[in-house]
Amino acid sequence: MRDFRDRVAVITGGASGVGRALGARLAAAGARVVLADIDQGRLDTTAAEIAGETGAQVIGIRVDVTKAESVNALADAVYDRFGAAHLLFNNAGVGLGEAQRPFWALPANDWHWGFDVNVFGVVYGIQAFVPRMLAAGEEGVIVNTSSGNGGLRSLPNTPIYAASKAAVTSMSEVLHQQLLREGGTLRAAVLFPGPHVVNTSILASKRNRPEDYGANDDNKPAYETMEDLVRTTGLKMALTEPDEVAAFALDGIRAGRFWLLPESPENDDKLRERMASILDRSNPVSAW
Fold first, then answer.
1. Which residues contact 61 (CB under 8 A, 6 or more apart)?
2. Which candidate in 95, 140, 146, 267 could, as Cys together with 203 as Cys, close a disulfide (CB 3.0–4.6 Å)?
3. pTM, 2 dp
C-alpha cells in the first residue's frame, strides 16, 4: 500500500504514544483515521488535536480490547461510518508491575491483565475486522504491535510482557501465511517499536486497569516512566520517540514489508546470538 489518501485506518491504543503518532502521520497523509482507546477523555482530546493539526477526518471511539463484544462494536461503528477499513493497527498494550519481581511471585491477575490486553486484544481485532476486510476484496494491511522484548528475545525482568509479545509475533506470522493462502490483497505485518526504549506512558497503564484484574492489588510498577526505567536499569541508550516509530512503520507498510523492525547493529547482534544458540542447541545467551 503506497498511498494512504482516503484510506480508513483504525488504531487501537490510539489516544497516546505510538498509536497517537501513527494517527497523526496517517491523517497528515490524507487517511481517514479512527482512534480507539479505553481512555475516553484522552481519546477525545487526541482526536480533536490531530483533526485540528491536519484538517483530516479523525474520530475517536471508546473500546475495551479485553472484550470481544467491545471490539466487534468498534468494527460495526467503523463500517457504519465509513463502509470500509483498509489499515488495522492492533496496537493497544499495557506494561505490568512485574519488574524486579521473580516469575513465581507474580499474581495471576497480572498474567490475565497482560494477556487479555496484549494478546486477546490482537485476537479480537483480527476476528472483528479481517472477515469484513477479506469480503471487501480491497487492498489492506493488519499491523500487530509486538516488541523486541519477547517478540524477538526475552528480557528476564518482564516475564509477562515478554511472553505476551512473543505470542503476538507468532500470531502475526501465522496470520501472514493464512492471508497468503486466501490469495487476495490483504496482508499482515508485525511492528517492533524501537530501536531503543520507546518514550510512551505504557508503564502508567494501571490507571485503566479494572478491578476484575486486581486494580487495587499492591502491584505498583517498579518504574513510572521510561526515563526511570532507563536510569534505574543502567541501560546506556537514548529514548526513541513515538513519532520515529510511526515514521518507519508507515515506510515499511509502503514498501510491503512484514517485519517492521528498525535497524540497530546492537540489537541485530543480540538476535544473531540468540538464533545461533538455538541452532547450536546451547544454553540461552544473555538478553542484555
1. 34, 35, 36, 43, 74, 77, 78
2. 95
3. 0.91
Distance from chain centroid for Cα 89 = 7
Burial class of residue 185 (count of CB atoms within 10 Å of its CB; 0-12, 13-18, 19+) = middle
How many other CB atoms sit within 10 Å of the CB of residue 26?
A: 27
Residue 46 in contact with residue 52, Cβ under 8 Å? no
- More confident site: 212 or 77: 77
The pLDDT of residue 207 = 62
More confident residue, 237 or 189: 189
Total domains in the chain come to 1
The answer as to whether 160 is a domain residue is yes
Q: Which residue has the cell 479485553?
A: 66
Cβ partners under 8 Å of residue 163, min gap 6: 114, 115, 150, 154
Domain that holds residue 136: 8-279
Which SS3 state, helix, strand or coil, does residue 275 take?
helix
Q: Average model confidence (pLDDT) for the chain? A: 90
Host H or E run for residue 253: helix 242-254
**Residue 244: which H helix or E strand, with range?**
helix 242-254
Cα–Cα nearest to 7, from 25, 46, 126 = 25
Write out pLDDT tens, residues 248-270: 999 999 999 999 999 888 889 99
Residue 269 corresponds to which cell in the numbers above? 547482534
The reply to whether 257 falls in a domain is: yes
- Selected catalytic residue, list 124, 161, 213, 223: 161
Strand partners, 186: 140
| 161 counts as catalytic | yes
Closest CA to 50 of 30, 27, 32, 81: 27
C-alpha span between 88 and 188 (Å, rounded): 10
Which pLDDT belongs to residue 212? 82
